[in-house]
Amino acid sequence: MALIVQKYGGTSVGNVERIQNVAKKVAQFVEDGHQVVVVLSAMSGETNRLTMMAKEMQTRPCKREMDVLLTTGEQVTIALLSMALQQRDCPAVSYTGWQVPIITDDAYSKARIEKIDGQKMLEQLALGKVVVVAGFQGVTIDGDITTLGRGGSDTTAVAIAAALNADECQIYTDVDGVYTTDPRVVPEAKRLDKITYDEMLELASLGAKVLQIRSVEFASKYKVPLRVLSSLKDGGGTLITSEENFKDNEMEQPLISGIAFSRDEAKLMILGVPDKPGVAYQILGPIADANIEIDMIIQNQGRDGTTDFTFTMSRLDAESALEILQKTANHLGAREVTMDDSIVKISMVGVGMKSHAGIASTMFKTLADNEINIQMIGTTEIKISVVIDEAYLEIAVQSLHEAFELDK
Ligand code: ASP
Ligand code: MG
Q1: Residues of the chain above pLDDT 70, percent
Q2: What is the pLDDT of residues 5-23, one digit of tens each?
Q3: For residue 77, which ligand has an atom nearest its CA?
């Protein structure tokens, strides 16, 4: 017998029939002798629908009221699932975030979970009931309703799994796991059986949008085994776990677990700035002050007392960053400022590369063989990223996928 926390996303509970389907699935786990806590999202589209109505009421909707409003979506699905379970003679009880309670700070719309009281849930499980909890919501110490940010139900599920010391946290969604890369770009992409938390964090932040990133951070911190799987298709999905849980030989094999990419990139260059202390700060400081996040940074070797600076950021921020940079350029007497918003970033991710040289050279050779120019390079212990022209994204990802035999 295991204690399992299962989370079903918006599409899985998108209508009455689908909720009945979830009930059937959950009841089967109970029949197999497991204890189950279910965490639900609102029906797909509901959170957006509520948000639109709020915007008709108030230009900038009050965040406290917004959270009171948005939490209703999940209250609907938990009650309906409990009913569907009861109808199947599977005892069940639903709880909103404040009934549990899931205590959060008071940062409306992006609250952080501070404490979960597991007692009520454990009592109900001991009585043989399925406990159905509303995802995405909590309550402050003072009794105000909060939400955890879009996609927050994933985090609720992981946090409950941690609080109850569950054997596994299963995230049921509309994809059947984490893939070596986006199957829309590489049809041969393979589902990964297992990856580490660190790899998942790198893949998630780079656009493999399977899980809310915070939920993976949470799982990693509390060592909650996390599994992503399809609510419609059978299969083992992808287990996200600690590096210790990989056998030595498994760890040796895949040097690269996946290739992530992001199309949402732009590059700014400032040429001919004085090569002296404090210049990097003068260039990047005002951009950081405008809350624009910089990703990769390169400073060229100085020549004749001047140097060039290149950095990347989200395409959405590029125009505002350019405006700021132009002011800095005038002030510093720089020669020129340029922007290129037709670039993409491709990253190879794998804990296996920690102990292996040669991954980077294979990557660069593969790109060279395809006549793809690398504009920038960045590395961490488990990741190598390159910036290239967006026209070559597909061919680059496909040829790297093949070169590293990720389809095998
Ligand atoms: N319903 C919320 C949202 O759409 C939370 C979730 O589904 O995880 O963001
Ligand atoms: Mg989601």
Answers
A1: 97
A2: 999 999 999 999 999 999 9
A3: 1
Nearest Cα residue to atom 5 of ligand 1 = 151
**Lookup result for tokens 């090569």:** 275
**Neighbour tally for 368: CB within 10 Å:** 11
The closest of 79, 116, 84, 80 to 94, measured between CA atoms, is 79
* pLDDT tens digit sequence for 154-196: 999 999 999 999 999 999 988 889 999 998 999 999 999 999 9
Q: In this structure, what token pair is assigned to residue 301?
A: 């070797």
Take atom 8 of ligand 1 and give the residue whose Cα is closest.
151
Ligand 1, CB within 6 Å, residue ranges: 9-10, 41-42, 47, 73, 135-136, 150-153
CA 400 – ligand 2 centroid, Å: 29
What domains can you pick out in the chain, each with its CATH number? 3-250 (3.40.1160.10), 259-403 (3.30.2130.10)
The span from the first CA to the last CA of the chain, in angstroms, equals: 35
Which residue lies with its CA nearest to atom 6 of ligand 1?
151
How many angstroms separate the alpha carbon of residue 150 from the centre of ligand 2? 8
Whether this model's pTM surpasses 0.85: yes
Q: Which two tokens stand for residue 352?
A: 């296996």
